[in-house]
Specification:
Elements (H helix, E strand, L loop, with lengths): L1 H20 L1 H12 L1 H32 L9 E3 L7 H31 L5 H26 L8 H28 L4 H22 L7 E3 L28 H6 L4 H9 L16 H15 L5 H11 L1 H18 L1 H13 L8 H46 L4 H4 L4 H17 L6 H20 L3 H13 L1 H31 L1 H6 L3 H34 L1 H16 L5 H42 L10 E2 L7 E10 L10 E9 L3 E6 L5 H9 L4 E8 L3 E4 L8 E2 H6 L6 H10 L3 H6 L7 E2 L8 H14 L4 E5 L7 H15 L4 E5 L11 E6 L2 E6 L1 H5 L4 H20 L3 H12 L6 H28 L2 H11 L14 H9 L6 H25 L13 H46 L3 H6 L2 H17 L1 H25 L3 H46 L1 H6 L3 H50 L7 H11 L2 H27 L26 E9 L6 E10 L4 E6 L5 H8 L7 E6 L2 E2 L5 H5 L2 E4 L8 E2 H5 L7 H10 L3 H5 L8 E2 L8 H15 L3 E5 L7 H14 L4 E5 L3 H5 L3 E6 L2 E6 L1 H6 ...
Parallel strand pairs: 3-7, 6-12, 6-13, 8-11, 11-12, 17-24, 17-25, 20-23, 23-24
Antiparallel strand pairs: 1-2, 4-5, 4-7, 9-10, 13-14, 15-16, 15-18, 18-19, 21-22, 25-26
Helix pairs in contact: 1-2, 1-6, 1-14, 2-3, 3-5, 4-5, 4-7, 6-7, 9-41, 10-11, 10-14, 11-23, 12-14, 12-17, 13-14, 13-23, 13-44, 14-16, 14-43, 16-19, 16-23, 16-41, 17-18, 17-23, 18-22, 19-21, 19-23, 19-39, 21-23, 21-37, 22-23, 22-37, 23-36, 23-44, 31-55, 35-45, 36-37, 36-40, 36-44, 37-39, ...
Length: 1527
């Protein structure tokens, strides 16, 4: 730029002097003013003045520093860490020192060279070199002293002024040297030195104004006075906000506000705490409320178009600003094609005015700078808009989750809702980068046609017609893309829904050995998705072929029309047209992406709008009444409610209930009678058909299926309330949870896994109860709270919680335990959705109806326990049967084993105590985080490994297609350059010259080259799509196969959100982004090499500038990449908590609403969204920081090449080829920037591959089948289970759960396992199924060690009814027989046996009756009965019942127990139950305590010893069942 300015100034001065006295006077004046001697004298004087002005102050400061006495540093700021200069400061210092050394060497070399050659000595040059060396040496010292000793954050003002002055000075000297070169036709050493000095001074000028920070912030020394006041908020400092919010205009323009974060990222691996918060106007809370206000005004009638208008409203200012930038970018991009003809004519010596070349160079440079600035800020603002739009939509979807009605909720599974947030909202946000292309593309086409008209006349009309034809093709292409995207999103929804359901229920899949079959189901869904993906890929291949060839097609038609109509084709016109077509290629090239994005965005808008339009909960279902106006806590009058309002019969009908404040109301009834629905009526969850519901006061709710948040136990109990020690301790005591906390490694700070995976059923239930108690509500609703706890704990909770702490509260509790009904002020007996009886216990007991049946079943169970206590025959009979079956186990043997186990357990405990004492408190505190069950998500560090790239490339046909793809694109590039070269060579410079070839031959050759290049593009695109498609399929298969084979511990410690994030967002990146980005990197690099090759053919001297600029670009790219890579990883890591929070909130929506906690959860969601926006925002800023600098450097190369062409003699330069070089050079900045940007963006996106590959290397479970160790088809024949010294822990950092237990379960016997909650009952069962492999000991079934056989051979031969009943979305038939192995008759028989036959026959669809997500349209009791039906169909020799009947009433439990006795009479049945009658019916009872065997014998033998643990459990149950009021 300074050279161009001086050139223009010279032209102006020359013109004026010629008017005054002719050109001779100007030459004389120039020689006198700008002669060599005058130049040296001027430089010496200037440097001498600077040496004096800067040297004396530096000398004075150094003297003061050396002689001054050390002062007190009490109030002096010192660096908190070792001084570290910023990278720009280091480079600036090195540059100054380099210039000083350079001039010293020149000062030595110059006289030596002249002396050897015996040339006349020029002492002026030597003096200039000496003074320049002195000046730059002093500059180096002054700069270093200022930054290190004075601790300034910026270079001194005098120094910065000199650097700016030196930039102008060296530009002026270079101009004089170029004038000398024109005369001598020889490049001198001075020119090279001046070019290098100009570069360094330009960099120093940039560093002086745009870089102002050094690393190591200023803090107070540790020697500060002790009385210094500490700010009140020092413990909770205000989070740092992005520097963008307070950046100056120049800092925003140049993206220099990103420099501090880039410096931090260069020094250390970035963590989320290092990334500043986004500004308030970018936060989710701000944009969501603007969006919400618009949405509320529209109600539920918001269509996709309305949603789009709302999105535009919240970002309208930014949209207008980006529209302005888009216009500026488009207009400036056409300056080059408009003036290229003038430049070619200028090179041929036909200037229209003096210094036209310099003026054109200045115009080109200005246009390029405007283009770069507008493009960079256009992209940056587009990302801003996308972040804000995604935040608003994500928050709106989350809010809708708490408002949607139950019937609408059944239409949208949690997987679909998560997909709306993670895919659809993301896609709409990404459309911000394409939104202006809709109208800017026609503008660019119009500008192109104007230029074509100017150069080609009316022949441009053929180009217009061709372009219109291309645009018309958009409509069918857009329609096709939209249809394909709708289909692929539907297929993706199905797959993610199935994936989410499978991940939630992975434990039951492994227990039942179903994981292989469900993996096949998932792969089938993926195959359907891939079918649409393939159509999109190959449809896109055709589109890319068509539009890559479109510019050549337009140019062939246009040039052909010119040849036919006689329009003269000159080199300038051809090059101008080619440059125009090349720029026109961008909007046409982006057209397929635009069509695809419009189609995808439209689909996403429709999906989100359809979800936001869903019916919401009726706000008037429950009416809140002030406590001052009524004594009633709950009042329901003539209530009729139905989960399906269209059903003929309401779910709950004829409901008239009045509950006074302080009453205890019990609700009982058989399975499916409507007890839980009654509570839902009070909560307002079930649609109201008629009647009214009024409540007075706050409420708390405990659901039948525990809902636990992942996080600390303490946070789950507090649930948003402030911690009060007294209340907290009393709640823990009432819930009998203190002892459990002692067993946890970190007490109430222990992390709970997703869905409470590391808690027993009883512990989850008690945390729920504690959460409700801590809220101190007015009304408490308990849905069967005692089903998952043992008799002792249940009694304790009932007395301490319901009768003591909640003694003055209104309590409604659903229960199947009849023994807890005595204390109720009112009992409601339900049947078929109606209250059949209501009153006190004694009153309704005498009515001899449904209630009597429930009580009778309970009394029958009590009598069986009493009979067992008094029976001696039972014990002896067990022993006789055990001996007759060949078992060597006797009561004596068992007792011996028990004693040995107790001894080993005692020894184990002593060792544990000794080990715990060896650890210091500090070590324990430091180990809390590392030893928690759920750890922070692992992320790689540093560069993406080349192995990841290699894994991706070779995943498709071993990488065989990659060389072919590169060769085809190289051929395309050569043909494309060849066609342009042909047109430039084969056309005359002017109309007067004779063309080298005829017009038909000119067009024929060009058309042939264009068609061949288009053919190569077609082959390349098809192969690229094929390779990308195959890689996506392979990575999906590898990751999911590895996940399904992962041990259960992986799912215990990995939140579902992390896996779903890889299966959704990362898979989408691999499917639709990476193939084209990887190809784009290679293609743009080949294109860049082609441009440089063309430019170097014109003037090889361009390498003088290109090579150092390329080196600087690579350095910038490497400097940027360190930070960008970690920011990209942080983006990936920050997505998982949002997905996890979404999933937890969806499953716990009823609980959250019942506690009125929607606003708190909404706040958490907004905070998590902001957590994702932070790295996303700064990643885009870092990208534009890099691109801005690359643009400036590439513009410098382009202008240098133009100036070089202007300076070279006319005999050296071929104007036609030079014009071709400039034509290609117009795209140099874009191509060079695109190469670097693509490389960085590819590495950022390759992190998705890295994350998927990471989950493809998960340690696997033992083999499913071991071929050389397979049991016989009839194994197990007896079902004898021999357990020897079994030791189990859930992780290497966790304590033992089972501590060396030894016992034998005889084949064909019924074994009951009892013990307090958390004693290890379920762990023992998991060991039997090898869900957890023992760390010591063994389990043998019929003499075969289960560790020696495959997992499927083991698990498929054992049946289990798990503690948490599981149903899959689908039908009753699919849930009973997922593998399709049984006939309908067999299924109906199983339903009859499990007491569900009548219920299923009563439904219209029979066996095809629908089951919604998680089986939510079936009661928990019915779900447990379905699980019973599965094992009845399977008929295994070993059956495990893990709290199988906890959620059914006593009468149904009795029928189930009878069914099990009849159907599994000759099988080994292991029962874990808290209901004592279920265990007392067993042949043997195993009592566990803290992971050890407390007792093991027949029930009768154990009951003979009144002090035994089992006898105490039976006694507690008997006393509780007989009279609970004896409290």
């Amino acid at each position: 730029m300074p050279i161009a300015a001086m050139k223009l100034m010279e032209s102006i001065w020359a013109t004026q002097l010629m008017r005054l006295g002719g050109y001779r006077k100007w030459e004389e004046l120039a020689d006198s003013v700008f002669g060599v001697t005058m130049r040296h004298a001027f430089a010496i004087v200037l440097h001498l003045v600077f040496v004096v002005c800067l040297g004396l102050p530096l000398f004075w400061k150094m003297c003061r520093f050396c002689t001054q006495r050390p002062e007190s540093s009490v109030l002096k700021p010192t660096r908190s860490k070792k001084l570290q200069l910023g990278v720009m400061h280091k480079v600036a210092l090195v540059s100054c020192i380099s210039l000083s050394v350079l001039y010293i060497l020149l000062g030595i070399w110059s006289p030596l060279y002249w002396w050897l050659k015996e040339w006349p000595k020029d002492f002026g040059a030597e003096g200039e070199y000496v003074f320049q060396a002195m000046a730059w040496a002093i500059i180096s010292g002054y700069a270093y002293y200022s930054l290190t000793k004075e601790i300034n954050e910026r270079f001194p003002l005098l120094l910065r002024m000199w650097w700016m002055l030196s930039l102008i000075l060296y530009a002026f000297f270079l101009f004089l040297n170029i004038q000398e070169f024109k005369q001598r036709k020889r490049i001198t050493l001075s020119i090279v030195v001046e070019i290098l000095a100009l570069f360094i001074s330009a960099f120093l000028s940039y560093a002086s104004f745009f870089d102002k920070t050094v690393e190591g912030s200023l803090t107070q020394s540790i020697e500060e006075p002790l009385l210094n006041t500490i700010p009140e908020n020092s413990e909770n400092p205000k989070p740092k906000v992005t520097p963008y919010a307070t950046a100056s205009f120049l800092s925003r323009m140049s993206f220099s506000w990103m420099k501090p974060l880039l410096d931090v990222g260069h020094e250390k691996v970035l963590d989320i705490d290092d990334v500043p918060q986004v500004a308030d106007f970018h936060k989710a809370n701000h944009v969501y409320h603007k969006f919400r206000n618009q949405l509320d005004a529209k109600g539920n009638g918001a269509s996709a178009f309305t949603i789009a208008k709302m999105v535009v409203f919240i970002v309208q200012k930014d949209l207008l600003f980006t529209a302005f930038l888009a216009v500026m970018n488009s207009c400036s991009s056409y300056v080059g094609p408009y003036f290229i003809d003038n430049f070619v004519q200028c090179l041929s010596g036909k200037e229209q005015f003096a210094s036209e070349g310099i003026v054109l160079a200045c115009a080109f440079l200005l246009a390029k700078v405007v283009e770069s600035l507008s493009q960079r800020h256009l992209f940056f603002k587009a990302v801003h808009i996308g972040i804000r739009v995604k935040a608003a939509l994500t928050a709106a979807i989350y809010k809708k989750v708490f408002m949607i009605s139950c019937q609408s909720r059944e239409k949208h599974t949690s997987g679909e809702i998560i997909n709306y947030m993670s895919v659809d909202a993301q896609r709409i946000g990404e459309f911000s980068r394409y939104v202006h292309d809709i109208w800017i593309a026609p503008l660019q086409v119009l500008l192109a046609l104007v230029i074509l008209y100017q150069h080609l006349g009316l022949a441009f009309l053929s180009g217009v017609a061709t372009t219109v034809l291309l645009m018309m093709v958009n409509f069918p292409l857009g329609k096709m893309q939209k249809e394909y995207n709708i289909k692929i999103m539907e297929a993706k929804d199905k797959r993610l829904k199935a994936t989410s359901e499978i991940l939630r229920n992975m434990k039951i899949l492994k227990l039942q050995a179903w994981e292989t079959r469900f993996l096949l189901k998932l792969e089938t869904l993926r195959k359907e998705e891939c079918n649409w993906l393939k159509k999109i890929f190959f449809g896109l291949a055709g589109i890319l072929f068509f539009f890559w060839g479109a510019p050549a097609f337009v140019s062939v038609v246009t040039f052909g029309t010119c040849a036919i109509t006689g329009v003269p084709l000159t080199t300038g016109r051809i090059l101008s047209a080619l440059a125009t077509f090349r720029i026109l290629q961008e909007p046409i090239y982006r057209l397929p992406d635009l069509i695809s994005m419009i189609a995808q965005t439209r689909v996403s808008l429709d999906r989100i709008a359809e979800f936001l339009q869903q019916e919401e909960l009726q706000p008037d279902t429950v009416k809140q009444v002030s406590k001052d106006l009524t004594e009633m806590a709950i009042e329901i009058q003539e209530g009729a409610f139905s989960w399906d309002p269209a059903a003929r019969s309401p779910t709950i009908r004829g409901l008239d209930v009045q509950v006074n404040r302080g009453m205890r109301v019990a609700v009982c009834g058989t399975v499916g009678s409507g007890k839980s629905s009654l509570l839902s009526c009070i909560l307002g969850e079930i649609p109201k058909i008629s009647g009214s519901v009024k409540i007075s006061g706050t409420k708390a709710y405990v659901s039948q299926s525990p809902w636990i948040q992942s996080g600390k136990i303490k946070d789950n109990i507090l649930f948003g309330r402030e911690w009060e020690k007294t209340r907290y301790e009393s709640v823990l005591q009432a819930c009998a949870f203190k002892k459990d906390l002692e067993l946890f490694p970190y007490g109430d700070q222990t992390e709970i896994g997703e869905r409470g995976i590391n808690l027993s059923g009883g512990q989850k239930q008690r945390i729920q109860i504690a959460r409700a108690l801590y809220q101190d509500a007015d009304i408490y609703l308990f849905d069967d709270p005692f089903s998952a706890v043992d008799a002792h704990t249940g009694t304790h909770i009932f007395r301490e919680c319901l009768l003591h702490i909640l003694g003055s509260k209104t309590v409604i509790y659903v229960t199947h335990q009849v023994e807890f009904l005595y204390a109720a002020d009112l009992i409601l007996v339900m049947r078929d959705g109606e209250i059949t009886q209501a009153g006190k216990y004694e009153d309704i007991l005498q009515s001899r109806t449904d209630f009597e049946e429930l009580v009778g079943a309970h009394q029958k169970a009590l009598k069986s326990v009493d009979a067992m206590e008094n029976s001696e025959y039972f014990s002896s009979q067990v022993l006789i049967e055990g001996q007759s079956t060949g078992n060597t186990t006797s009561v004596k043997d068992v007792n011996n084993q028990k004693l040995q186990t107790q001894d080993s357990g005692q020894k184990s405990k002593e060792v544990k105590d000794l080990e715990s004492k060896t650890h210091s408190e500090k070590e324990i505190d430091e180990g809390v985080k590392s030893s928690q069950l759920v750890q922070q998500e692992e992320k790689e560090k540093g560069r993406v490994s080349m192995w990841v790239y290699w894994s991706y490339i070779t995943s498709a046909y071993k990488g065989a297609l990659i060389p072919i793809i590169l060769l085809t694109h190289t051929a395309f590039q050569l043909l494309e350059i060849g066609s342009s070269y042909w047109m430039a060579w084969a056309t005359p410079l002017t109309e007067d010259q004779k063309p080298p070839v005829s017009k038909p031959l000119l067009i024929l050759v060009y058309m042939t080259l264009a068609l061949c290049s288009a053919l190569f593009i077609l082959v390349r695109t098809i192969l690229l799509c094929l390779s990308g498609f195959k890689s996506a399929k392979q990575l999906f298969s590898d990751m999911h196969s590895c996940i399904f084979r992962a041990p259960m511990s992986f799912f215990d410690t990995t939140p579902t959100g992390r896996i779903l994030n890889r299966a959704s967002a990362d898979q989408r990146t691999v499917d639709q982004v990476i193939p084209f980005q990887l190809g784009g990197v290679a293609f743009s690099l080949i294109q860049l090499l082609g441009i440089v090759a063309v430019m170097s053919q014109v003037a090889w001297q361009v390498f003088i500038m290109f090579i150092p600029v390329l080196a600087i670009c690579i350095w910038y790219q490497q400097y940027y990449l360190v930070t960008s890579r970690e920011l990209s990883r942080l983006v990936g890591v920050s997505k998982a908590p949002i997905i996890q929070h979404f999933a937890e909130s969806i499953s716990g929506a009823i609980t959250i609403r019942s506690f009125d906690q929607e606003s708190r959860f909404m706040k958490t969601n907004l905070h998590l969204i902001d957590g994702l926006s932070r790295p996303s925002f700064h990643m885009s800023g870092a990208m534009e920081w890099l691109c801005f600098r690359l643009d400036l450097l590439s513009n410098l190369v382009f202008v240098f090449s133009m100036v070089l062409l202007l300076c070279l003699p006319e005999s050296v330069v071929n104007p036609s080829i030079a014009g071709l070089g400039i034509t290609y050079g117009l795209n140099l900045n874009l191509t060079q920037t695109w190469v670097i940007w693509s490389l960085c963006n590819l590495e950022n996106n390759m992190i998705s591959v890295e994350r998927m590959v990471q989950y493809s290397r998960i340690p696997s479970e033992p083999p499913l089948v071991i071929e050389n160790s397979r049991p016989s088809s009839c194994w197990p024949s007896r079902g004898t289970i021999d357990i020897t010294d079994l030791q189990v822990r859930y992780g290497p950092h966790l304590p033992l759960v089972l501590r060396g237990i030894s016992c034998i379960f005889p084949g064909g016997k019924k074994v009951g396992i009892v013990g307090r909650t958390g004693c290890g009952k379920s762990t023992l069962i998991q060991s039997l199924f090898r869900i957890v492999d023992p760390v010591g000991g063994r389990i043998a079934i019929d003499g075969i060690d289960i560790l020696t056989i495959g997992l499927h051979d083991l698990r498929s031969r054992i049946s289990i009814i798990p503690q948490d009943p599981t149903m899959f979305e689908g039908s009753i038939r699919n849930n009973l027989d997922p593998l399709g192995d049984y006939s309908d008759d067999e299924i109906w028989k199983a339903l009859e046996k499990c007491q569900l036959g009548e219920v299923v026959r009563g439904k219209e669809e029979k066996l095809d009756s629908p089951v919604t997500e998680n089986g939510e349209n079936w009661s928990v009791g019915q779900r447990q009965l379905v699980c019973l039906g599965r094992v009845l169909l399977k008929k295994s020799r070993i059956l495990v019942l893990d709290e199988a009947t906890a959620s059914v009433d006593t009468a149904t439990d009795g029928l189930i127990q009878q069914t099990i006795r009849n159907q599994f009479s000759d099988c080994t049945v292991i029962t874990i139950a808290h209901r004592i009658p279920s265990v007392c019916d067993s042949d043997l009872v195993l009592v566990l305590s803290d992971g050890n065997i407390a007792e093991y014998d027949s029930p009768t033998k154990l009951l003979e010893n009144k002090s035994s643990a089992f006898a105490k459990l039976v006694s507690e149950y008997t006393i509780r069942g007989s009279n609970i009021e004896g409290k």
